[in-house]
Amino acid sequence: MAVQVSSRRLAVGLLIALFSAVAFGSSGGVAKGLLDSGWSPAAAVTLRILIGALVLLPLAAVEMRGHWELLRRRRTWAHVALFGALAVAGCQLFFFLAVTHLTVGVALMLEYLGPILVVLWLWAVRRQTPRALTLAGIGLALTGLLLVLDVFSDAQISMIGVLWGLLAAVGLAVFFLVGADESTGLPPLAFTSLAMLLGAAALALAGALGAVPFEMAADDVPLAGAVVPWWVPVLWLGIIAAGVAYATGVIAARRLQAKLASFVGLTEVLFAVAWAWLLLGELPAIIQLLGGLLILAGVVCIRLDEPSRPRVQPDLTTPAAART
């Protein structure tokens, strides 16, 4: 079924996407104090996701009135599980792990190679062969990645941090691809809260089994030049940087579709750098900022190369050949 994006729907979607980017962008700066005070990334992410899910749950229950039969479908749970495991739990865990080795700005710039992965997925699975401008955009983004890594200087950068950042990019691509898919019929807040609950449960189980370190601390946390109780950043991460951010992000993705939503979502990099400067006094090196701008320019090229036509809602679980 074709979905034409009207000008009003586009404008509202853009505003929601920007609001989501502001909320998401605060997570690294707020979380870093927790991680430095003894919290493990898995513990911080689990509590963040669980609080966010619980905040959304009452709204999700209202939204599900008349739609409870959707929960009987295997397809619904397949989408929810995929989103919860990779776009929620995996993406945030990998990002927080990256932040323990890299600055917030550099970790975000690596994570936001995710839109490039969206283009590659659409190419491989839906046979949407990229044209010259898209290929140029990918080249710019990859050049930007080299600058973000500062490979031309003698500065040392943690390659394990780079790996975590790139894995976060995979989770981000899943966020936009699966988040934009409305084929299950599940309302956005219900979809988001269920996925977050599953993601939190998966991380808690991994922590209980010892697969990932799961450590918390009751020490006060330095934040924005002050010292605050540990629960202040935890509540911020759960309510603002998880509940509000994920819900508005999924709503925006459904309004804008995956490629445009992922492009607008790149503004999170800029907001994250601003939050990191405000909360931590932390800025990337000039060459790394230049790399980030090249990554942004690359994704702008990809967006400009997208044909202006009615969009067909993708079925992410069925290969392109089977849908023809």
Mind explaining what this structure looks like?
The chain has one domain. The strands form 2 sheets. A two-stranded antiparallel sheet has the order 1-4. Strands 2-3 form a two-stranded antiparallel sheet. The C terminus is likely disordered. The protein is globular, with a radius of gyration of 19 Å. It is built from 13 helices and 4 strands. With 324 residues, it is mainly α. A hairpin with a 2-residue loop joins strand 2 and strand 3. Helix content is 71%, strand content 3%. InterPro entries: AA-Vitamin_Transporters, EamA_dom, EmrE-like. Keywords: Membrane, Transmembrane, Transmembrane helix. It comes from Nesterenkonia aethiopica. It is found in: Membrane. This is EamA family transporter.
